[in-house]
Amino acid sequence: xxxxxxxxxxxxxxxxxxxxxxxxxxxxxxxxxxxxxxxxxxxxxxxxxxxxxxxxxxxxxxxxxxxxxxxxxxxxxxxxxxxxxxxxxxxxxxxxxxxxxxxxxxxxxxxxxxxxxxxxxxxxxxxxxxxxxxxxxxxxxxxxxxxxxxxxxxxxxxxxxxxxxxxxxxxxxxxxxxxxxxxxxxxxxxxxxxxxxxxxxxxxxxxxxxxxxxxxxxxxxxxxxxxxxxxx
Length: 232
Hints:
Layout: E1 7-11, E2 18-22, E3 26-27, E4 33-34, E5 45-46, E6 56-60, E7 67-71, E8 74-76, E9 82-84, E10 92-93, H1 118-132, E11 138-139, E12 148-152, E13 155-160, H2 168-180, E14 184-189, H3 195-204, E15 208-211, E16 217-219, H4 222-228
Parallel strand pairs: 13-14, 14-15
Antiparallel strand pairs: 1-2, 3-4, 5-9, 6-7, 6-10, 8-9, 11-12, 12-13, 15-16
Helix pairs in contact: 2-3
Protein name: Restriction endonuclease type IV Mrr domain-containing protein
């Protein structure tokens, strides 16, 4: 409901790591903040397959009673797993109303785009790179083995909007391509990363980001944290 965001302890179902999570608030049409009520007794689940019709939850505004549809709360665990947080009294809704951009907790406000299609995922990654300061973002000349490649001066990025976690080969191919062009790289995945891909990325210095449905890339390794910190 509305009010201050509540925080809950969330245990990753894949690696057992515990996180403190506070659900994001979205602005209702009346101007009041709306926050999905987290279920303290529910069990977090790993997102393995994406079904767009099941990604939305209906939450009433405590101020005006208007029922809005917002993305299910999720977090990216450093192990590469995307964890869905249970919502009290939740029911999925097909489609979903377009939620206005929510303020980011970063030093500058990042304006995301809601992800519903593969094109939205690419747009979200491009907007994030522009927010980091990269200009002249375009489709990469060399097509990656999976997903879509983006290029900017000094950086290659791969966006994987599929429902399977990125594999070791995906990370290695991106890194090799970036090396041949003397550029840095970053990987954006909608479904997260396999543990092997996460370990390989750590060794190669590849920043990994999980795209949540609000369109905000979530860093899942230290290299991504370092890249994210460049947005002063």
